[in-house]
Amino acid sequence: MEHNQELDNRENILECALDLFYQKGYDAVGVQEIVTKAGITKPTLYYYFKSKYGLLEALLQERCDHMITRLQEAATYQGDLIVTLERYAKALFSIAEDDLRFYYLFLSLFYSARENDTYKAVLPYIKKQFSIIRGIFDEAAGFLGNMNGRQEQFAIGFSGILNHYILLYYEKEHTSKRLIDDHKIYMLVHQFMYGIVV
After folding, report:
1. H helices within 99-116, ranges in order?
2. CA 154 to CA 160: how far, in whole Å?
3. pLDDT at position 3, please?
4. Residues 6+ apart with CB under 8 A from 73
5. Which of 22, 37, 88, 124 is the most buried (most CB within 10 A)?
6. Nearest in space to 103 (alpha carbons), one of 92, 91, 116, 89
7. Quick one: which of 51, 10, 9, 58 has its CA closest to 29?
């Protein structure tokens, strides 16, 4: 029972911190605000995470490890670039839709100042995510001769399209539609592919 209580406490702190970091940004949130929202004391937070930064690192590790695993599975290349890109886009949109607060926070940390500790904390996961996308284009390079040598360029472009789409999608007023829409994913991928094959 005590072990379950510890897990509940830890998860509660992570969830409350995620809410606050998402709403206000990491730098604008103090430890006192987190512990007040979580209904705990500062020593309890320090017991689990040592510091606010340690809390951010734990949040990133747990959520990003799960995200990276899902994206790796979706990115398995089996000879059809379009199908692979559609599957990857669908997995990424599903991750964002399942945990929008975290994915917005994830992107905001990457877009923060380069000397900021939060940027340094998120960078390894950004690199892993990009490596997965780059891997798709590396695998497909032999099948699309005009892409060979430009895999990184295409990986950057495809990643940018997907992340920008996610960022702007929920900014629409009163949107109740799901982010995952097979037709929209099909259109995004084919619009992107048009730029490769011409």
Report:
1. 100-110
2. 10
3. 47
4. 91
5. 88
6. 92
7. 51
Rounded CA-CA distance 31/43 in Å is 11
For the chain, give the mean pLDDT. Answer: 89
Residues 6+ apart with CB under 8 A from 187: none
The per-residue pLDDT for range 14-64, each reduced to its tens digit, is: 999 999 999 999 999 999 999 999 999 999 999 999 999 999 999 999 999
Closest by alpha carbon to 14, among 36, 42, 45?
A: 45
pTM above 0.85, yes or no: yes
Confidence category of residue 182, pLDDT binned at 50, 70, 90: confident
Go through 165-177 and write b for each residue having 16 or more CB atoms within 10 A of its CB, e for each that does not. Answer: bbeebeeeeeeee
Which residues fall within 8 angstroms of residue 83, CB to CB, at 6 or more apart? none
At 193, give phi and psi (nearest 5°). -65, -30
Cα(84)–Cα(49) distance, rounded to whole angstroms? 38
pLDDT (tens digit, 9 = 90+) per residue, 100-132? Answer: 999 999 999 998 888 889 999 999 999 999 999
End-to-end, the C-alpha distance of the chain in Å comes to 62
